[in-house]
Predict the 3D structure of the following.
Amino acid sequence: MRRILVLPGDGVGPEVTLEARRVLEAVGPRHDLKLEFEEGLIGGASIDALGTPLSDAVVARAREVGCVLLGAVGGPKWDDLPVDQRAERGLLRIRKELGLFANLRPATVFPALAGASTLLPSVVEATDLLVIRELTGGIYFGTPRGRSIVEGRREARNTMVYDEVEIARIARVAFESARLRRQHVTHVHKANVLEVSQLWVEVVNEIAADYADVELSHQLVDSCAMLLVREPARFDVILTGNLFGDILSDEAAMITGSLGMLPSASLGDGGVGLYEPVHGSAPDIAGRDVANPLATILSAAMLLEYSLEAPAAAEDIRRAVDRVLENGHRTQDIASATDAGKAVGCAAMGELVIEALGSE
Ligand code: NAD
């Protein structure tokens, strides 16, 4: 029996997590997986019920279960609260409490959606890459940091710092992930300028010795940014630090052209994982059954792959999504971008994926 903690959150969160859960319930028995679900509150929903964006009880459940499927948090109702009490704080806290140091964001262009990208279909088709970003170190957390007045001038500083243990553990996530894919890791850095990047190159090379079956290359971050829009299909796994990963994962996401299609996973030690769509709570369309649930359904596929070690079940879901899109079904957000057919709602899209499970 494998347990999954579902935290629907706010806005479209409850709608899209419901569809992902239904897909998991349908795929489980097909792969001898017994799944048990429990639900908890996070974000605005938790503020309304308990006065805090994340309760200690939910943190404890998440730690114990170790596998969380999350919708999205936030919305105008909670925007005026002080920063440390806002809905989004719940998300930051749960990531921290679970020690999630690796953020995995795949950018896959489904052939049927190649026209949704702002880039030429001939450039984006066949894009299937995975950005692995270090999430808990680097310049966003390094000290000293802060502002001061020096000789009458305003000055500000941040510190980029990594130690070899932090680099080694994220490098292992990248090499392990590449083994599940096309066996290629591109390490992205700025070693011509930064000592921190030089250490990354050194440590990544050392870890690579344990993965002779995976090919490793090193790429400067500036040229990687260019190659991503020129030839995105050349990349398999991109491994990088917090700052570069923040920027490159958004760039890679734009290649696909559709926010409603992008899943993510954040991993900690020992298989702990948090799986969520990249998009937010989309308050503008919440409660209208028009949200695209595919990003969350694809996040559920990542959960099967990384936390439950069920890659065949994950692939079953991905193939089903592919099939549904090939058959011309679209939610509103991707229908307008590709001019395809009549848009279906969130629940109907979930149902279509369930029906397509196991189809060839
Ligand atoms: P958003 O991602 O919620 O929405 C941006 C646009 O994309 C909107 O037009 C929305 O309708 C559309 N969209 C998003 N997801 C969609 C889906 N599944 N199907 C169809 N269309 C979709 O970003 P935003 O509007 O900047 O933020 C709204 C709220 O979400 C804010 O409170 C913000 O803080 C929060 N937020 C939460 C997360 C998270 O929980 N991880 C991430 C980003 C933003």
The mean pLDDT is 94. The pocket of nicotinamide-adenine-dinucleotide is lined by residues 12, 16, 72-75, 88, 91, 259-260, 276, 279-285, 291-292, 295, 333 (CB under 6 Å). The domain at 1-110+259-360 is CATH 3.40.718.10 (Isopropylmalate Dehydrogenase).
